[in-house]
Inverse folding.
């Protein structure tokens, strides 16, 4: 694992720069840490995506909710593989189903909650009956992400969610 600083691409007129102060890691991140990237673009690999998978992968997950990643997820899925939509799309996207014709990629979706259970959760948090603060089990700085982050999640089963401070700036 390595951490690299990347320069910013020039911004378009309707874009802004956002400084991310914290990120979270949890058990679902361990596969990437232990085995390598799950989502690998097969048209072009780079230092962030890993090796090229010429025929695509069995299953891809669309988790950003925007057209480019939706299309990339389909393109990265092998013929007759499955693309799972996990994200919530804030806006409609333009997409042509012909994109699936030559590959037979299956698209499915999942939802972790219904509007009713979501509202019940918000209500429980509002009354103090559900205290989400206990979910975050540790806070670390970026330099400690391997030892106190991924290794802690791997070896210490009391760890659930670890917040990672990305910079010393407040």
């Amino acid at each position: 694992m390595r951490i690299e600083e990347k320069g910013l691409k020039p911004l378009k007129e309707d874009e802004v720069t956002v400084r991310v102060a914290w990120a979270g890691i949890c058990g679902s991140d361990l596969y990437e840490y232990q085995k390598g990237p799950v989502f690998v673009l097969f048209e072009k690999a780079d230092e962030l995506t890993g090796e090229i998978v010429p025929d695509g992968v069995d299953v891809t997950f669309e988790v950003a909710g925007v057209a480019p990643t939706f299309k990339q997820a389909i393109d990265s899925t092998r013929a007759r593989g499955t693309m799972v939509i996990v994200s919530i799309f804030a806006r409609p996207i333009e997409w042509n189903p012909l994109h699936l014709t030559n590959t037979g990629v299956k698209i499915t979706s999942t939802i972790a909650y219904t509007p009713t259970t979501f509202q019940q959760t918000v209500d429980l948090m509002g009354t103090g009956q559900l205290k989400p603060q206990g979910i975050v089990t540790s806070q670390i700085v970026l330099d400690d992400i391997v030892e106190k982050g991924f290794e802690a999640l791997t070896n210490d089963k009391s760890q659930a969610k670890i917040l990672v401070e990305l910079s010393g700036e407040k």
Notes: The CA atoms of residues 76 and 128 lie 44 Å apart. Residues 45-49 have pLDDT under 50 and may be disordered. The first helix runs from residue 30 to 35.
